[in-house]
Amino acid sequence: MAFFVVLSHYCVFSLVHYQSLMKRLIFISILLTGLLQYRLWFGENNLSEFFSLREQITSQQQSNAKLVARNQVLKEEIFELANGTEALEERARNELGMVKEGETFYRVVNTTNKLPSSQ
Questions:
Q1: Rounded distance, CA 105 to CA 98, Å?
Q2: How many Cα atoms are found within 13 Å in the side-chain-facing hemisphere of 65?
Q3: pTM over 0.70
């Protein structure tokens, strides 16, 4: 009979100890979850900063793509100027207003000015 008393006492002690341990584990779990949530929303490198940086990266990548395309056009233009006379001649005509020997230059002026209406 003493064996059953000791066993029942041990079971009650074990159950109380188990409940106390579970309460502590639940409290620690809630505390850790709260701390992690705080860091996620308000801490350094938080979620809003992440989205902001992601938008900046996308914007910078688009800007870089435009610059790469522009650089490619400039490289092609440099190649044309270095290797061909057609591009050089075209630039001289457009930017400097030069004319070849024997050519006649005509300037076309748009005269769409409205005549004053008489009332």
A1: 9
A2: 6
A3: no
């188990």: which residue's tokens? 18
Rounded to whole angstroms, the Cα distance separating 42 from 72 reads 44
- pLDDT of amino acid 15: 72
Please list the rounded mean pLDDT of every run of 10 residues in the chain (119 residues). 55 73 93 92 89 96 97 90 77 80 80 62
